[in-house]
Amino acid sequence: MHPREGWQPDGTRRRTGLSRRAALKGGAAAALLAGGGGSLLSACAPYLTGSQKVPLPRPYRPVRWPTNGRKPIASGLPPETGATLQIYNWVAYVNQACLNNFAKKYNCKVEVTTFNTMDEALSKLRSGLKFDVFMGVTVDVLGQLIESELIQPLNHSYIPNISQAWPDFSSLPNSPFYDVGWQFTVPYTIYTTGISWRKDYVHENPQSFKNPWRDMFFQPKYKGKIAILDDYREGISLGLMMNNIYDLNTTSQSQIDLSRRTLLDLANVVDMHIDNNDYTEIPDGQTWIHHAWSGDMAAAAYYMPKGVPVDVVGYWFPKDGKGPVANDTLTVLSSATNPVLGHLFLNYMLDLPNALENISYNGYMQPIEGVTPQKLVQEKILPPSLMSTVVLPSYFRRGLGELQLPVDADALWQQAWLVVSNGM
Known about the structure:
CATH class of the largest domain: Alpha Beta
Helix content: 25-40%
Largest sheet: 9 strands, mixed
Order of helices and strands: HEHEHEHEHEHHEHEHEEHHHHH
Structural class: alpha/beta
Mean pLDDT: 89
Radius of gyration: 21 Å
Strand content: 5-15%
Number of strands: 9
Low-confidence stretches: 14-45
């Protein structure tokens, strides 16, 4: 699902099949993948597994993580001197200008080490690699990071700019639902998953359909020009929404099977492609309809062929919020040798001018007050025709999160996606 996962040297995303939530190995998950069956936890299962007591946060079941006696760093400490802030981040997921300006402000150096998948990142952190800041941490792995004590509780006195974030991440009751009281995280990027299309080739608008998730894709006249994202959570979620099922964390085998069958039917009808290159294929016209991430399409102007206006690119996400919405976070690692600078970096990235500078490169917006469609157009960061790529607070509140699943249910999702993707 992660929009910056799996980049290759030529600037495209490699095909990964199971995406950042790599196939589970060993144990019950492997048995399920091999045998195609197994008992499921209920849809309301509060834990990752019955024996592994790692809670599964949900908007209706927020989680305040225990600190297990660990305390944040002391207040009032000066920034470390002569330091090099070590950042661990996805590839191409922060504006270098922001890093340079932070280094200048705090008289330090900043070095970034990158990873391609969250699985890779977690493995290396567990092996003992040490950094100060872990960027782009996805909500579904927080339980693992906290349980393993890989990230440290935050001292809020160093992060006053949290007041610039949407209340959903700091000041509303039980916010954010995945880390109540923002004990370990602050928000970084936020994005939706919707539908992008070339308006000059496709004259239908998703808004004109009763169920755009289904009807926009099931159009045989565009055979060979339709693609869906190469991600098992996004793919199976799309198949669910095609059938008017909006529980994107379902543990129902019958619903997961229905999604699989629907996607296979789609492949037969339109000869669909599966890839994560929405950001280039729609602008250059290689694909006419693409299941897409909002941040990718926000940057469409940079990939348009010479002489083709960006206005021909459309992006749709339902105004009622009944579509996938996700956000990534920023954390300070327990291994940090520069924890004060780490806290100050989190604070720096929450400041509106810095957020705008980051969005101008990254494409992925941040849930900061003042980051509005109008502001992004005014700053010439976003063309007016793509204001629909901006995530609104109401989308986050009403949107559908693809959150961490119980292990056995996750295996069923992966199994279903393997059947779909292996045929492409």
